[in-house]
Design brief:
Length: 560
């Protein structure tokens, strides 16, 4: 076992727009983040992943970048950013930046040039095609609704955009594009950043000829994922990036890779491959998706466990390394989705946190998760800001005639703005996020759920997370130990052991809102045990062969 800082550390994701506003314009900013670093340090965070802070017209809140080497005006200046990095490093913390290079903004100077003429030197920086008659070059659907192609009058051609039409896809086939990107990455690394989270990095290689996807009945466009996810040249690009850039620094890399299986993941993260350190898998995020994310289907605990355990076994024993997350800026709030955000909000948030910090992999905490922040239900679609949500609503309600009330329900369950309401710092106006008018409304439950309350309450989710992070650090078996599942068929418990040489830990999680009796399978033998952490008060000397758990109870023992 080779120890690595990016395996032992805990990552905290900051979505800057919604984190802390320092100047009252209603938008979170870098000086605001700096004022909260002690709060994060106190929690035990080692690594910050900062969602994009680059220059951007904000069609997709910074995931549409118009200058990769400058800072968005609303967020501050490069001097502020330098200051952030210095303040983090002074506290022994690291910073990883979001790298969004599947696409840029249409306001990036490369695209401004590219659209000018068919023989512009930047034309081939993007993916331009002639139409099929008066139709798009193929039938791919944009992930943000409608066609993935936009017609441009000036040259009468279409450009590809897998996301919004203000996010044209870069043409990775062009070696000049790759060199520009590698140079830009090197520039940031030389400034001292500690790694990258790579946005939809498994979409950068498209199948040659860009073939149409099989038509879907009653639908104008179809998902083209088979032709742009894990495409033919993806590993060539990843190895080139590693060789030319990543391998020269002691950094951490995590690829965001929708649709990847554990077998495919190994090809990205196995050490011998020299590509990336870890990936964000989406199988858990899709556990409740039928035909696409907005078709919400029920699932059982065994479905959730099957997915997580498959990834634990799939990347275990040195084959790879997992990233452990249950929410981020694109997903509903973890406690609302996988726990119980009413009667058992505290207990279930702590139980889910226990799961994330006791499997093999690097845990990611999304801002507000440590407070048990919940989903939001705005009355009107006008209160929503997210482009994915708004495009979907428009298409469903105005083009397909779906009942708006039904669409609103799906937004309450799955909409990205659930994660983007402002961070709840205290119970003053606007949750202490801003003295002005926030760019998106705060969740009205901030009077009860906020950081000020949580930091001072020994029983809070925040203080439990603090202990959890400490416990993982103090017990390397929880970091490096191999995973073995117990009671895989149980619809009540998720239980597993972790084993590292002669160290062993046992994790028992009650996923229900009832008291439940747990019996340790007889093949697990022990001569003694020590309670490492639990979300309930309990008699730690009580034998563990069989015991009663309370709603959403979590226990972690060390076995000897
Ligand atoms: O998201 C990638 C992605 O695949 C999205 O479809 C994501 O799954 C979706 O938002 C869930 O509804 C990344 C970023 O995380 C996201 O914020 C960006 O909007 C997107 O890429 C484009 O850059
Ligand atoms: Ca601000």
């Amino acid at each position: 076992m080779e120890r690595k800082w990016w395996k032992e550390g805990t990552v905290y994701q900051i979505y800057p727009r919604s984190f802390a506003d320092s100047n009252g314009d209603g938008i979170g900013d870098i000086p605001g983040i700096i004022t909260k670093l002690d709060y994060l340090k106190n929690l035990g965070i080692d690594i910050i992943w900062l969602s994009p802070v680059y220059k951007s017209p904000n069609d997709d809140n910074g995931y549409d970048i118009s200058d990769y080497q400058d800072i968005m005006d609303e967020f501050g200046t490069m001097a502020d950013w330098d200051n952030l990095l210095a303040e983090l490093h002074a506290r022994g913390m690291k910073l990883i930046m979001d790298l969004v290079v599947n696409h840029s903004s249409d306001e990036h100077r490369w695209f401004v040039e590219s659209r000018k003429s068919k023989d512009n030197p930047y034309r081939d920086y993007y993916i331009w095609r002639a139409g099929e008659g008066d139709r798009e070059p193929n039938n791919w659907e944009s992930i943000f609704s409608g066609s993935a192609w936009q017609h441009d009058e000036l040259t009468d051609e279409y450009f590809l955009h897998l996301f919004s039409k203000k996010q044209p896809d870069l043409n990775w086939e062009n070696p000049k594009v790759r060199d520009e990107i590698y140079n830009m990455m090197t520039w940031w690394l030389d400034k001292g950043v500690d790694g990258f989270r790579m946005d939809v990095i498994n979409m950068i290689s498209k199948v040659e000829g860009l073939p149409s996807a099989p038509a879907q009945e009653g639908r104008k466009y179809a998902g083209g994922g088979d032709y742009f996810m894990n495409g033919p040249r993806i590993h060539e690009y990843m190895r080139e990036m590693n060789e030319k850039v990543l391998s020269k620094y002691d950094i951490m890399t995590v690829g965001e890779t929708p649709g990847v299986t554990p077998e495919q993941a190994i090809d990205y993260v196995n050490e011998d491959r020299h590509e990336l350190h870890m990936l964000f898998q989406f199988e858990l995020m899709d556990v409740d998706s039928g035909h696409g994310k907005w078709d919400i289907i029920p699932y059982k605990l065994t479905d959730l466990k099957r997915i997580l355990s498959k990834w634990q076994y799939g990347l275990g024993h040195g084959k790879g390394w997992n990233s452990l997350y249950m929410n981020n800026h694109d997903q509903p709030r973890m406690v609302s989705r996988f726990g119980n955000d009413e009667t058992y909000r505290l207990q279930s948030a702590k139980m889910l946190g226990t799961l994330l910090h006791t499997q093999q992999g690097t845990p990611y905490v999304y801002q507000g998760e440590e407070l048990g922040m919940t989903n939001v239900k705005f009355d009107s679609i006008d209160q929503y800001k997210d482009i994915e949500t708004l495009n979907m609503y428009h298409e469903k309600v105005h083009e397909q005639g779906v009942d708006p009330a039904h669409v609103m329900l799906t937004i309450y369950i799955k909409g990205r703005d659930n994660a983007r309401t402002p961070m709840q710092w205290d119970d003053s106006a606007n949750a202490g996020f801003t003295t002005g008018t926030p760019w998106i409304e705060v969740n009205p439950n901030y009077t009860e759920i906020n950081a000020k309350q949580a930091v001072s309450d020994p029983n809070s989710i925040y203080n439990y997370y603090k202990r959890l992070i400490r416990t993982r650090k103090d017990n390397l078996v929880l970091v490096y130990g191999e995973f073995d599942e117990l009671l895989a068929d149980s619809e009540t418990f998720y239980a597993y052991t972790r084993t590292l040489d002669n160290e062993r830990a046992l994790v028992v999680l009650n996923f229900t809102a009832q008291d439940q009796t747990f019996t340790l399978p007889s093949e697990i033998t022990y001569t003694g045990f020590e309670l490492l952490i639990s979300n309930y008060d309990l008699d730690a000397t009580q034998d563990i062969r069989t015991f009663t758990t309370r709603p959403y109870e979590a226990r972690v023992y060390r076995l000897v």
